[in-house]
Design a protein that fits this description.
With 685 residues, the protein is of the alpha+beta class. Helices cover 55% and strands 15% of the residues. The strands form 5 sheets. Strands 10, 11, 12, 13, 14, 15, 16, 17 and 18 form a 9-stranded mixed beta sheet that branches. Helix 12 packs antiparallel against helix 13 (278-303) and helix 13 (278-303) runs parallel beside helix 15 (336-366). The two termini are 36 Å apart.
């Protein structure tokens, strides 16, 4: 059995822990090249292989174990190649526009037309946005039959948006109102010409029609004008228009119509008015004032004794009312509530001024005047037309406003979803960025983020981001007796113990300017001068050998290297890095003593090795990418740990040479291949 998980808080990596992992590591260390070395447990599960029995060997922490060997020749003769996969799988993350290099895809599967029609690529990209808001959702956000949002801020935003949208249309409405007034005069002129041509005719039929249509006074006026000088005056035209306007009343209407655009411009163009929805209220007030003025004018024109009423006078009231209602609904943008209020005022004015006149004229019917029959007939038709137009316009306005509010609600929901997506994306990118910086150095993360390549090219470029580091110092720290301990204790408790121990080490990294490189089982690897500390980097890997010779010369004080380090000489940079890492090692040893092993209740004892030199860093592998360091000095540091002493720091002569004030004790001479033996030193903590 084994335990898997992530330990520590820096340079996170998924790891396995337990006695099984330690035994597998020993099989690797004691095996032969080009062979598979395994334990007796594997033989019982795969007895059909050509296993070769070895002599019993002593495995650290396990005692004598029977192991077996499977040479490469045993499976090479069968034509098998375990290092090459027979199947190539397309990784969608490495594809761009359906292409991937070095890949031989088979024929594409055939899809029926129905399936192609249902694919997302053939769907409209606006389909999601075009989906209307459901009525149930709309009711949750509105009140008063959907004519107002429950949140006052939303209602203000809706009205403010409507006012800005119809800013130009309002000016068009005022301009059309002037045309309506001019058309009233034009209608009066045409009606006057028609009246004059009929009433001046001496035939009996024309005289009777003129009396019924225009009245007795109109007949007398036409005959008088026929005998006069024939000049046309304003009073002659306005008498035959839809509604009679004196010059004073016309001036009032034109003044209100001029005041409306001025106040509308002021509201939209001046910063004094922050809420532009006041422009809608302004339009409503102007149109209501003009409506009141017109009805007063029409009423006075009928009740003044000197003015004779035409039999069809009610017909002129209908077009006046409906025309203003159309201008208000089409060119104002006022909300449904104000529009309904306008219609209530208009209805009250229409019946309030017309009914008294109708009741007053009823007395004429008792006197045998047939003109009243024409008047009452026109009044009924006009009232029906006004009622029908009012219902149609109000229903149309209601439907339009509901749809407009639904579109606003839809935009709000889309914006909320977009904001949520942006927040989630930002949060995900932040997590990815922080997690990536916990896996590879921040300098490499910045280089990756600066590129615009697709993932496949990015992975290739990532593997070429190598650097040569001079004056780097590296530490290996191993837990003493971990193999025996992991064999005796439950794997979960081992994992919890390692997590607590490595968390203690991680908390010391920032304090001592150290960078956690990796953890391998119970081994903790940290550096100074690689990512943190005084960095002396060469971007070309070809300079690695010359850099190592230069570093050795500097350590021996034979060559100056001032030109390579912006912080000073290579020796001073190496001294700073070694000083930081040595203090980190001391803190590790002290901190490990505070962490107790579960069940056995003994403190954790570390064996630490330190060395300084040069190395090559970069990303290795195609799966589970790993930032690592390579070089002979890395192997020396690992050897310092392996041959060190528990609860002490084992260092090379380069480290002791740069920190002569420490209480070093000569420890042993270590043999190295193709090189002279190295004198090492020990520092008790």
């Amino acid at each position: 059995p084994c335990m898997s998980g992530i330990v520590g808080t820096k340079n996170l990596r998924f790891c396995l822990f337990g006695d099984t992992m330690n035994t597998a590591a020993r099989m690797d260390q004691m095996g032969r090249a080009d062979c598979i070395h395994t334990t007796e447990d594997v033989i019982d599960l795969a007895p059909g292989e050509a296993w070769e029995k070895l002599r019993r060997i002593d495995v650290k922490g396990k005692g004598l174990m029977q192991t077996y060997l499977l040479p490469y020749s045993a499976f090479e003769k069968d034509g098998e190649n375990p290092s090459v996969s027979e199947i190539c799988f397309e990784n969608p993350l490495l594809l761009k526009d359906g292409r991937q290099k070095n890949l031989q895809p088979g024929p594409a599967p055939h899809l029926p037309d129905e399936a192609l029609a249902a694919t997302p690529s053939n769907r409209s990209k606006y389909e999601e946005c075009a989906t209307p808001v459901k009525d149930s959702v709309y009711k949750n956000y509105t009140k008063h039959l959907g004519l107002a949002f429950k949140k006052f801020e939303w209602e203000k935003a809706y009205l403010d948006g409507e006012a800005r949208l119809v800013e130009i249309e309002v000016y068009i409405g005022y301009f059309l109102y002037v045309l309506v007034l001019l058309s009233n005069l034009l209608f009066g002129y045409i009606n006057y010409v028609l009246h004059h041509s009929i009433c001046t005719d001496s035939s009996l039929t024309a005289v009777e029609f003129c009396q019924l249509k225009f009245g007795e006074l109109a007949l007398d006026q036409a005959q008088d004008m026929d005998g006069g000088d024939g000049r046309l005056s304003y009073n002659d035209i306005i008498t035959y228009s839809l509604f009679r306007m004196t010059p004073a009343s016309l001036g009032i209407l034109l003044g209100l119509n001029a005041l409306g655009p001025l106040t509308h411009w002021f509201i939209h163009r001046k910063n004094y008015v922050k809420s532009k929805y006041w422009a809608l209220v302004n339009v409503w007030v102007i149109y209501t004032a003009k409506l009141i003025v017109i009805f007063v004018i029409m009423y006075l024109s009928l009740v003044i004794p000197e003015q004779e009423k035409n039999a069809d006078w009610p017909w002129g009231w209908g077009p006046v009312l409906v025309t203003q209602a159309l201008l208000l609904v089409l060119y104002s943008g006022v909300p449904m509530t104000l529009y309904c209020a306008w219609w209530c005022i208009a209805t009250a004015l229409y019946y309030g001024f017309s009914l008294p006149i109708i009741l007053q004229d009823k007395a004429l019917l008792d006197e045998g005047a047939s003109m009243y029959l024409i008047t009452i007939n026109e009044y009924i038709k006009t009232s029906i037309i006004v009622f029908c137009m009012g219902v149609i316009l109000c229903l149309g306005k209601y439907s339009k406003e509901i749809n407009t509010r639904k579109r606003l609600l839809q935009r709000v929901q889309v914006l909320k979803q977009q904001d949520e997506i942006i927040r989630q994306k930002t949060r995900t990118e932040t997590i990815q960025h922080e997690f990536l910086e916990n896996i590879i150095p921040p300098s490499l993360v910045k280089k990756l983020e600066s590129g615009r390549e697709d993932l496949s090219v990015l992975l290739v470029r990532l593997k070429t981001m190598t650097e040569t580091h001079l004056g780097m110092c590296i530490l290996y720290a191993d837990l003493v007796g971990f193999t025996t301990f992991s064999a005796q204790v439950d794997p979960f408790k081992v994992f919890t113990f390692l997590n607590q121990l490595f968390h203690t080490f991680d908390s010391l990294c920032d304090e001592h300017n150290a960078y956690k490189l990796e953890t391998v089982g119970d081994c903790y690897v940290a550096t100074v001068g690689l990512v943190t500390g005084e960095r002396i980097n060469l971007t070309s890997p070809k300079e690695s050998d010359s850099a190592r010779k230069m570093h050795r010369s500097v350590m021996q004080s034979t060559v100056s290297c001032d030109a390579l380090s912006s912080a000073g000489s290579m020796r001073s940079a190496s001294s700073v890095n070694i000083r930081n890492l040595l203090e980190f090692a001391k803190a590790m040893v002290r901190g490990s003593r505070q962490v107790m092993k579960p069940e056995v209740r003994t403190p954790a004892i570390m064996r630490v090795g330190i060395h300084s030199g040069t190395c090559l860093s970069g990303i290795v592998g195609a799966k589970n990418l790993k930032f690592t360091v390579l070089g002979e000095d890395i192997d020396i540091a690992a050897q310092m740990e392996h041959e060190g002493k528990p609860d002490a720091i084992h260092a090379s002569e380069d480290v002791a040479f740069l920190l002569p004030k420490e209480r070093w004790v000569k420890f042993k001479r270590i043999e190295r291949s193709d090189r002279e033996p190295m004198q090492t030193y020990l520092l008790e903590v």
